[in-house]
Specification:
globular, mainly beta, 6-stranded antiparallel beta sheet, single chain, Jelly Rolls, 119 residues, 9 strands
Length: 119
């Protein structure tokens, strides 16, 4: 079991992803986390990621700034600061910013989906 760690989020660099930028703060590769993955994502406006799902892995998207939406079953639900989207394991979804960047804390558990993928 890893020891407790303090992570200064500003010290962790962002990496580019198709829909913006992301940085992983807690994961098996980063610090030996066994049961969850925590990151920060900056969604660029109007560039949703493709609809996808995480088999065996739940996801929480907690919006810190900006506005956007999350979509499941063709239904869009607005996201704004303070909104928290819970996405059950295996549910196909997509998320995007609108009108400017949207920044969110993204938490997934367990750390890997049922196929072993850590995203």
């Amino acid at each position: 079991m890893p020891d407790k760690q303090i992570i200064i989020t500003d010290d962790v660099p962002f990496g580019n992803v198709e829909w913006g930028r992301s940085k992983i703060l807690v994961s098996p590769a980063m610090n030996g986390a066994e049961h969850l993955r925590v990151g920060v994502t900056e969604y660029h406006p109007d560039t949703p990621h493709a609809p996808h799902s995480h088999p065996g892995q739940e996801e929480v998207i907690w919006v810190l700034s900006g506005h956007g939406y999350t979509e499941t079953h063709g239904e869009r639900q607005p996201l704004r600061p303070g909104a928290l989207a819970y996405i059950p394991a295996g549910l196909e979804h997509k998320t995007a910013a609108e009108g400017g960047p949207m920044t969110a804390i993204v938490i997934k558990g367990p750390a890997a989906d049922s196929s072993g993928k850590v995203s």
